[in-house]
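hey so i finally got around to running the thing on that chain from the lab meeting. sorry it took forever, my laptop kept dying and i had to restart like 3 times. anyway pasting the input first so we r on the same page abt which one it is
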Amino acid sequence: MWQANVFTIFPEAFPGNLGVSLVKKALDHGRWSLSLIDLKNFPAKSDRIDSTPYSGGNGMILSPITFEKAFDSLPEKEKSWRKIYFSPRGRKLNQADLQEIANEDGIIMLCGRYEGVDQRILDYYEMEEVSVGDFVLAGGEVAAMVIVEGCVRLLPGVLGKNESIDEDSFQKFLLEYNQYTKPSIFKGQKVPDVLLSGNHTDIEEFKSEESKRLTMIHNPDLWAKYIQKSLLDVF
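ok and heres what got predicted. didnt touch it at all, straight out
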């Protein structure tokens, strides 16, 4: 069973969006588990888990002693799992990362708050700094939920059809084509005729071309990866 270990000072933020829909159903059915490690339970000195930064500055920094105590509370087999710290300076998360993480036994995530964590935590525990986008959040909890939701939906049996994963945006370096449902005309806008034709070959070709067109317009970087992959497949 895949497991997410989350180190946080706000465990009450969870399960959040992880407590609804298919992700919650998968949790209830034992396809994955969530372990919340409350850093406040591991004070470095007295009742403090953080302190002011050396050389001055605003905010508080998580103590390495606090994290050491919290980390040591994990079962030995879990200590070797991939370790992630959320940071604006980190490498941007992508779908391939989620697939890799979902294929592992579990993941360790450290959610920073305030001015962050002592750098020695990241260095000693070989934490991978990851960003979920070019913006700043108040803490890492929402980012942790992003990773968990993205991984859980990739676990076997969570989605109703494996085809749903195969057709995901980014799975084939293409964004998903536009989707339509009834009625066929809404406020003067018609569903593309080909989707009503019943000709499956034409429909699949239309969807493929739409995916390419939308990727080229909305995500040039992904389009470049698709072109590169296509050329590699040829040769």
